[in-house]
Design brief:
The strands form 2 sheets. The protein has a 5-stranded parallel β-sheet, with helices on one face. The chain has a 3-stranded mixed β-sheet with strand order 6-7-8. 54% of the residues lie in helices and 8% in strands. Helix 3 packs antiparallel against helix 4, helix 14 packs antiparallel against helix 16 and helix 16 packs antiparallel against helix 17. With 535 residues, it is of the alpha/beta class. The chain folds into 4 domains: 169 residues, 3-Layer(aba) Sandwich (Rossmann fold), CATH 3.40.50.300; 63 residues, Helicase, Ruva Protein, domain 3 (Orthogonal Bundle); 127 residues, Zinc Finger, Delta Prime, domain 3, CATH 1.20.272.10; 112 residues, DnaA, N-terminal domain (GMP Synthetase, Chain A, domain 3, 2-Layer Sandwich), CATH 3.30.300.
Amino acid sequence: MSYMALYRKWRPKDFDDVIGQDHIVKTLKNQIFSERISHAYLFCGTRGTGKTSMAKIFAKAINCENTQDGSPCNTCELCVDLAAGRSMNIIEIDAASNNGVDNIRDIREEVKYAPTEGKYKVYIIDEVHMLSMGAFNALLKTLEEPPPHIIFILATTDPHKIPATILSRCQRFDFRRIPSGEIAKKMQYYMEEEEIKAEEEAIAYIARISDGAMRDALSILDQCISFHHKETITLEKVLDIVGSVDQQVFFSLTEAVVKRDSKRCMEIVEEIVMAGRDIRQFVGEFVIHFRNLLVARTTQNLEQILNLSRENIEILQQQAKQIQGNTIIRYIRAFSELENQLKYASQGRILVEVALIKLCQPSTDGTYEGMLERIQALEQKLAQGVWTQKVSQGEQAAAAPPSPPKPKPRAVPQDIKENINAWNEVKRSFDRPMAAMLHDTEAGYLEDAFYYILCPNTAVETYVYHKVDKIGEKLEQKAGKKFEIKPILTMEYNRQYKVLYGEGMTEQEEAEDPYMKEFLQDIHESGVPVQTVDE
């Protein structure tokens, strides 16, 4: 017999085999006991949570000749035929490939005939949201008043795409994501039955990354078993298969960010890329690591909340003590935004490196959290005091190095403002590749000591960041002053400009501005009453 994948081999055969859906199992069993079986059901939930398996078990149970505690016996002739796929009482339809009006018309003709054996004929329509609107309309009347021997079970991952007229005719059951602990326990049982050795840490990690889907977990486990045939499945082997990184990497990278060691951050990213790890998966797991740090800083009894070993929890608690809560929130927001950007980026590594540089150098981060961190750093320096050392005039003269050439005076705000218009001439004076990169940039001024270069996107901002010295030399030659260059996204500059000069936003701008959304959301969650001007 040909090999059968684990998720097919260990598909639940009765209600007792189903995990994580006790609320649905109890309801369906009660309906069978009380003979209050509905004519139409809608099973909703993410992939791999047991929708189709539950539908098949329910179809067997209502036709079984000898049910046991509401579950099918799996020994009678009807149960055996249904399990082998030989029964005409269960008709499975894939709505993704049979989504036309003609397919539903065929069903309307077939439901007139009674089942050849058993009490009910069950139609399981998978991915029902893929039906066309005409097909939904054709199904309406049959779904509302089917023959007494017909039961419809509709399964979908997107219930919001189903018309309300269909939803109102079905009993809806929402399948929950399966807890990782239950997935790990079940997989450990399967490994014992398959006589395959697997470390507890490896099983727990697979359960965690499966995101509540039992089928995903078994597929990953199946791949690990095939790749490491007749070997013990270890955590390192699982990490290698799924393209993930060890938990220790997150601790090391977080330590480098806290110490503002940009060089070490770049080295860790290099190691991750050269090891062939998935950069998007790494960023997603790094966000989870920051979340765990925040939980460790604010919560007790972490073993009940975090699915980590005792050793990792202890390291997590130690690291959480070194970071302020608002700093961790800043890290989470930065990498959550990065995770969304990576979906459409072709150079993911560059975006990750830029994000890490911003975390290591708050002066490049113009967000509220970045400014707050700079203020806290200044407060710490003031609290420590300024240390000075007095030396005699003779020692000072002996230690004095040869006087260097007199530097050009640093530009004051007025100089910066006067030389804003000179940027167009300066950017055209560079060689052709650099001039092309700077073509869409502009110069800006915000009444501080910076000469702002407005960049249309993150890629240009990164390029300017690495060319700051060269740009400063050109401006110095042009104006005879030394400028401090700071690249900034055009959108961020416009926001700061409006705040600084008091130009109020329109209602539409306020509604679309991401910073205003975060501000209003924080106020709403805090429960502090807000008084408007009219009040």
